[in-house]
Amino acid sequence: QVQLEESGGGLVQAEGSLRLSCAASGRPVSTNTMGWFRQAPGKEREFVAAIKWTGINTYYADSVKARFTISRDNAKSTVYLQMNSLKPEDTAVYLCATGTIFSTSAQVMGNPRMYNYWGQGTQVTVSS
User: Fold this and answer.
1) What is the CB neighbour count within 10 angstroms for residue 97?
2) What DSSP line would sit under 24-88, residue for residue?
3) What pLDDT, in 10s, does the model give residues 35-63?
4) Do 44 and 95 contact (CB within 8 A), yes or no?
5) Residue 122 forms beta bridges with which residues?
6) Which residues contact 54 (CB under 8 A, 6 or more apart)?
């Protein structure tokens, strides 16, 4: 079975930092892409960042670009999201996902429908 477990969320002040982790187990070899999404109360799920397991291709939503960094550790089958300069608007449940995506285009990598497996999420709350 495939399991994705997020961790690292919590309460942080504006301008602070957090690092989220997503550990994957039972991940099929074909799932070559990992992504981070977030969902705030009353809002739809929003793309945050994605990365190929090769580490060559990354993609960020405009709202987090230059502030967030996605990375991966293939040996640990873990993806990370380093979040700096956090804003209250970043408050949401952050979820990681994995899927098989051969395209490197932003449109495809940022599409949640391309991801087959999802974690339960970790809460990130940024106070003002």
Assistant:
1) 24
2) EES--TT--EEEEEEE-TTS--EEEEEEETTSS-EEE-TTTTTTEEEEEETTTTEEEEEE-S--G
3) 999 999 999 999 999 999 888 899 999 99
4) no
5) 94
6) 32
Distance in angstroms between the alpha carbons of the first and the last residue of the chain:
40
DSSP 8-state code for residue 117 = E
Placement of tokens 């993806």 in the chain: 79
CA distance 126 to 31: 32
Q: What is the dihedral of CA 12, 6, 34, 58, to 10 degrees?
A: 20
Identity of residue 89 = E
Encoding tokens for residue 64?
């987090």
